Amino acid sequence: MKKTIINHGANLVILPTTQFKTLHIAVDFSTAVEPENISARALVSYLTAVSSARYKTQQQVAQKTIDLYGAQYQTDVFRIGQTHHVRFTLQIPAPTYIVGGKQLLTEAFDFLSEMIFNPLAENHAFDEQVFANEQQSLINELASVKDDKSRYAVAKLREITYDKSGMRVSASGNEETVAHLNPSGVYQAYQNMLNDDAMNIVVLGDINQQQIISLIEKWPIVPHQAKEEREPFYRQASRLHLSELVEHKTSLNQAMLTMAYQLNIKPFDDQRFAVMVMNSLLGGTPLSKLFMNVREKESLAYSIYSRWQHDTGFLTIAAGLDTTKVHQTDTMIQEQIKAIQEGDFDNQTVDAIKMSLISDYLSQRDSPASQMEVAFSRLLTRRETSEQEWINRIQSVTADDIQNAAQKISLQSRYILLPEV
Q1: 269 and which of 13, 40, 81, 265 could share a cystine (Cβ 3.0–4.6 Å)?
Q2: Is there a single domain that holds both residue 202 and residue 249?
Q3: Do 145 and 11 fall into the same domain?
Q4: Positive or negative torsion for Cα 209, 80, 176, 320
Q5: Does residue 236 lie within any of the structural domains?
Q6: Residue 176 belongs to domain with CATH number
Q7: What does the angle CA 402 – CA 405 – CA 407 come to, to the nearest 5 degrees?
Q8: What range defines the domain where residue 70 resides?
């Protein structure tokens, strides 16, 4: 993957393709996860989504995207391991299909530059009215998690699982911290993002590479060396004692059982491919033991899944179920894990799971967002695994590999959400 350095401050990857009739631009700012800056960075993403010095209202921003032939502009925040990301994305029709396409391309890059680098601010502070509106919008979004029992339970599980405080907080921060933010403090967080974050740009579409470079070189990118050079992956030492929390809430008609297991393997250990297959066999697909046995055969849960997070090393299991079935479900989940650890699974199911994993992986070819995510991952980790190597690694996973991977998991925390009696 070829990378171009722009203005000594950003990495640019261009992915030329005629596969899609759209052009995609994504700009990603990343830094180390710190609890004191997560909420402010999340609010930056809200503020830069709805206004700039030139487009002072959300209506003006929307009108400009209409003028760009129905462009789609959005911002987002998320976490990968121990890095926090603010991302800006813009999608426009491929200029090659538009009369005056060169002008459209120039205007699109100018618009994105405006939204990122020229916020609606004065005297080193964001506009007070826009700030108040977006601050409340973010608070409302964070508050809505409490009304979604699945999201709430997983969030509470995260709080009791991670040792590092920044890992316990949502990528969008928390209500209390957001409520105490002010326009000047968030503006400083925005400036820190521009000056200190690692900045990665990915552009995908039917484009002239030199033209793209020329357009981005006009952006006011701050020359700098990002402070955070370590890999994003987070790992922590195994705990000797289980962290457990049971909570009761009103207005619930079913319970949530969530558990976090640690899988202590290094981020790029070859065992990660066996872990992918093992997780799919446990609860990651409709062919999994949790789905087939716990949900379908025994009818113990309305929903159940397992998810392995390569970036943190944790495997999460979550189930929505009746209050009276929590203990029985917990016991049966442990039985499914033990069965895999002892090799109690058939090769036919494993082969089907491998085919499903490979099919999902290859489907990335049909998605601009997925192709760009692969490029961002390679920029962030500074590592590449070729498509064929990835497929070969999955295909070569053996039954013994799956058993060994399952034997490495260790229960670290359990959170149970129950209806108020």
Answers
A1: 265
A2: no
A3: yes
A4: positive
A5: no
A6: 3.30.830.10
A7: 110
A8: 3-217
Distance CA 200, CA 73 (A): 17
User: Which residue pairs, CB below 8 angstroms and at least 24 apart, start in 245-249?
Assistant: 245/156, 245/160, 245/414, 245/415, 245/416, 246/415, 246/416, 246/418, 247/156, 247/415, 247/416, 247/417, 247/418, 248/417, 248/418, 248/419, 248/420, 248/421, 249/149, 249/417, 249/418, 249/419, 249/420
What DSSP character marks residue 126? Answer: B
CB atoms within 10 A of CB 403: 17
The verdict on 157 and 300 lying in the same domain is no
Q: Residue 147: what are its φ and ψ, rounded to 5°? A: -90, -5
Task: Using DSSP bridges, classify how beta strands 314-321 and 303-309 pair: parallel, antiparallel or unpaired.
Answer: antiparallel
Express the helix, strand and coil content of the chain in percent, nearest 5 each.
Answer: 50, 20, 30
In this structure, what DSSP letter does residue 121 have? B
Residue 280 shares a structural domain with residue 354: yes
**Dist CA 88 CA 90 (whole Å):** 7
- pTM for the structure as a whole: 0.94
Co-location of 269 and 164 in the same domain:
no
Sign, CA dihedral 414-417-420-421, equals: negative
CA gap 279, 265 in Å, rounded: 14
| Contact partners, residue 165, CB within 8 Å, separation at least 6 | 35
HSE (side-chain half, CA atoms, 13 Å) at 58: 10
Report how far residue 185's alpha carbon sits from residue 125's, in angstroms, rounded to the nearest whole number. 8
Q: Does residue 53 fall inside a structural domain?
A: yes
Asked if 297 and 410 sit in the same domain, the reply is yes
Which amino acid is present at 16? P
Instruction: Say if 232 falls within a structural domain.
Output: no
Q: Could you tell me if 375 and 13 are in contact, meaning their C-beta atoms sit under 8 angstroms apart?
A: yes
Residue 304 CA neighbour count, 13 Å, CB half = 32
Q: What is the mean pLDDT of each run of 10 residues along the chain (421 residues)?
A: 91 96 97 94 98 98 97 97 97 91 94 98 97 98 94 97 94 96 98 95 96 96 71 91 94 93 91 97 97 96 96 97 96 98 97 97 95 94 92 98 97 96 75
| Whether 206 and 321 share a structural domain | no
Asked if residue 106 lies in contact with residue 46, where contact means CB atoms within 8 angstroms, the answer is: no
Tell me if 77 is assigned to some domain: yes
